[in-house]
Amino acid sequence: MIQKGTTPEELNRRKQAVLPAWISTNYERPIELVDGEGFRVRDSEGNEYLDLFGGIVTTISGHNVPEIVEAVQRQAGRIMHSSTLYLIESQVRLAEKLVELSPIRGDQKVFFVGSGSEANEAALLFATHYRRSSEIIALRGSYHGGSFGTMGITGQASWRATPRSALDVSYAMNPHPSYSPLLEGMSPERRAEACAKDLRNLIETSTAGHIAAFIAEPIQGVGGFIEHPEGYLRRVKEVLDEQGILFISDEVQTAFGRTGSAFWGVENHGVEPDMITMAKGLGNGLAIGAVMGRSEVVDSISPKLHISTFGGNHISSAGALANLEFILKNDLQKNADEVGGYLKGRLEALKEKYEAVGEVRGRGLMLAIELVGPDGSPDPAAAMRFMEACRERGVLVGKGGLRSNAIRISPPLTLTREAAGEAADVFEDALAALGAEVR
Ligand code: PLP
């Protein structure tokens, strides 16, 4: 069934004529998704898929969730926009809910924006103002956004369209060997220790010595769902605390129960950040982001003024509130833990069986497998073929990592065990179709 009277090829030709060349779509024959329900989506030709990338780690509660749709429709039928010049009840309620759920202690403030990049921009603004310093430390392999400032703290060459940064940025050593080959062969404890030592050394030897903030994702998302070793962020926090350096946890991908074992990704590491940035899952795909942080830091720019015209508007706040209520009411974090644990087990079984499957990593419903060649080196071509084979079999996944060979799995947290099993069967079929060697 072809809707809108156009084929994907035709739509793609039109897109290429008027959208930037660097906006790439997945798949040789791009897909136009037109309908969705829960963790299933349908394209314009009537093909159905399991959405195992959850939009782009956005649709955390699933597609077309009646409670969220109704909240948005109800609000749109009343008033769509008024701005922060007026009171917005849903925005205040959303901020209260986030503070209630926050892992940060003490007084906090929430500033709403329209995206993850803007959330990080705002956090950087508050940190540099509060600390009266423009020095920032980020991690190699990080991704923090596509705006000028956030691109400047992103530690991945392929996402750095400019060598310039608005800030003085230093990159700390990433404790994962794919970003720091020197660490190859070391135990996770040794890697955690080595990288915390390196951070101290970096500050002492290579900076002006007055750092505003250290920013890190609890699990690096675009970087390929890279988990930090146990103890790493705790050791890092000790170094930061010695010098009063703020810690910004970029939770654009890891918040709201995504990791299963905690509501906020940073809670898996037992450290308390000064600010948390969020977007993607906050509105289940609606354009809303936020920075939540210690009041004295967020309010430090006062009496200067700052505004986001669309941040936390009526519709996105009402939708995000309904989304948070849905996540909590249905205990999606627990489901992410259980179904994610099962799916990770199935992925590990594939690693045992097939040479082409390298590292399996992640937690909850934020999981990745690396596709590797016979010598164990990253194999991006195999990852492409694997994605296409999964698509042909009705499963959509994401891709990422330094070498683009990591298959990223981040479905809505409503995924059932049966659907996870269905996906794992498809993965095995796809590996067999690729001609992957059995160990
Ligand atoms: N931070 C992280 C960890 C992200 O993964 C992303 C987007 O992928 C961003 C920030 C930027 O978010 P946005 O694309 O909404 O600006």
Which SSEs are present, and which pair or pack?
Elements: H1 8-18, E1 33-37, E2 40-43, E3 48-51, H2 54-57, H3 66-76, H4 89-101, E4 108-113, H5 116-131, E5 135-139, H6 148-151, E6 168-172, H7 188-206, E7 211-216, E8 219-220, E9 226-227, H8 232-243, E10 246-250, E11 275-278, E12 289-294, H9 295-298, H10 314-329, H11 332-353, E13 357-363, E14 366-371, H12 380-392, E15 395-396, E16 398-400, E17 406-409, H13 417-433
Parallel strand pairs: 3-15, 5-6, 5-7, 7-10, 10-11
Antiparallel strand pairs: 1-2, 2-3, 4-12, 8-9, 11-12, 13-14, 14-17, 16-17
Helix pairs in contact: 3-10, 4-10, 7-8, 11-13, 12-13
Bound molecules: pyridoxal-5'-phosphate.
Structure description:
The structure is a single chain. A hairpin with a 2-residue loop joins strand 1 and strand 2 (40-43). The chain starts with 7 loop residues before the first helix and ends in a 6-residue tail after the last helix. Helix content is 37%, strand content 17%. It has helices spanning 8-18, 54-57, 66-76, 89-101, 116-131, 148-151, 188-206, 232-243, 295-298, 314-329, 332-353, 380-392, 417-433, and strands spanning 33-37, 40-43, 48-51, 108-113, 135-139, 168-172, 211-216, 219-220, 226-227, 246-250, 275-278, 289-294, 357-363, 366-371, 395-396, 398-400, 406-409. It is α/β, with parallel strands linked by helices. Helix 3 (66-76) runs antiparallel to helix 10. The protein folds into 2 domains: 8-64 and 331-438, Aspartate Aminotransferase, domain 1 (Alpha-Beta Complex), CATH 3.90.1150; 69-330, Type I PLP-dependent aspartate aminotransferase-like (Major domain) (Aspartate Aminotransferase, domain 2). A 7-stranded mixed sheet has the order 4-12-11-10-7-5-6, sandwiched between helices. It is globular. The chain has 13 helices and 17 strands. Pyridoxal-5'-phosphate is lined by residues 115-117, 120, 143-146, 217, 221-222, 250, 252-253, 279. Residues 115-117, 120, 143-146, 217, 221-222, 250, 252-253, 279 line the site of pyridoxal-5'-phosphate.
